[in-house]
User: Fold this.
Amino acid sequence: MSTKNKILDAAEKLFADKGFNGTSLREITSLAEVNLAAVNYHFGSKKELIKAVMSRYMDELSPKLEAALGVICQSSDQPSLIEVFSAFVEPLLALNNFQEHGTTNFLQLLGRGYTDSQGFLRWFLTTSYPNVIDNFVEAVHKAYPALSAEDMFWRLHFTMGTIVFTMSSSDALMDIARNDFNNNVDIAGVIKQVIPYVAAGVAAPI
Amino acid sequence: MSTKNKILDAAEKLFADKGFNGTSLREITSLAEVNLAAVNYHFGSKKELIKAVMSRYMDELSPKLEAALGVICQSSDQPSLIEVFSAFVEPLLALNNFQEHGTTNFLQLLGRGYTDSQGFLRWFLTTSYPNVIDNFVEAVHKAYPALSAEDMFWRLHFTMGTIVFTMSSSDALMDIARNDFNNNVDIAGVIKQVIPYVAAGVAAPI
DNA sequence: CGTTAGTTTAAACACTTGTTTAAACTGTGT
DNA sequence: ACACAGTTTAAACAAGTGTTTAAACTAACG
Assistant:
């Protein structure tokens, strides 16, 4: 495996676990078993490394999401909100083939991107991958045409918050669920739980 | 104003803005216009300062929340979920009398507590103020008895995520809403938007 | 072989972090 | 006036941060 990929793998794991601010380059290079200076040689800076970690996932995920949402938009039937949100499931779970713990890591990283780093990552993501968001908004509008643009705006952000916040602490939550309910739930189980919740939230009467 | 309170006020503002990890003691003491060593003299460590900032709010808020939720629990009628969540509104908005921008600051800090600091703040809050959570769970159960303990657990965490995530980026969101919809929304308006969403989410069919 | 571009390495850089020290200052009570 | 507890202060501490440097290594090509 190349030095570059060793760094990306180690950084991904540590960033998801402890946040971008909370992870030092020395921790990353030590886990990756490469020299400290290799990060700046291959990526230029820590900020660029963060972008590279996120891009690796987004480049894999965004075409699949665009496609799945596009099918819903172009179908002649009116979709249910459950169907719209379910379009995310398979592409998200497929990240587990792409990388070990890919689904969890990506969703945790997404959450970090919103809370760490004063929003520079949010800006990077929304400007780099606007089609995903556009298709999503269109699909939701098709499923619930009565929703005004402003209500839509707020409810999509509430949904984003639910997903991202849940996933960024999903390890702790799954531990609690295991202890308190003897129910061995995994990331797919959490996604199954959250879809009815957000679908009902978006569908709430105005 | 005492040195201790000057530190608490400055720390609160900076913590809410940039997170616990992202704020240095020198930034705090410089904004508070006190000596650097004053933090360790009055609070012992940065960790204890974080706890103190949160405790100041929780000690103000938790009796009011317990009371408001207690009323619902002890009433003979079955409450709606909208009523349960509405019980939070007045105590939360009252924080604006307690401190400038108190509502926003507190909710942002709560969000930081879940994502920064590897969960030590979550542990501190749930063990220090268990009655609030217990009363809340009881009220929700009364409004929706069919919900199993496990489903309740997940949906309450989804709700927590919605609130906390929304509020931690509420400034940016309100700006967007102002630009895109010419609608001058404030924090009370956001709360009005979010209550139907979370109520519908928790009430979703199983 | 010798050259050269690409990569890895140890060391140092300048800077920031939370914490501690010991001296100076403050006001209150004797 | 003195003493003393409480508080503030400047300075230093050790440890950790991202980044840069220049030398060493590696492999491919003429």
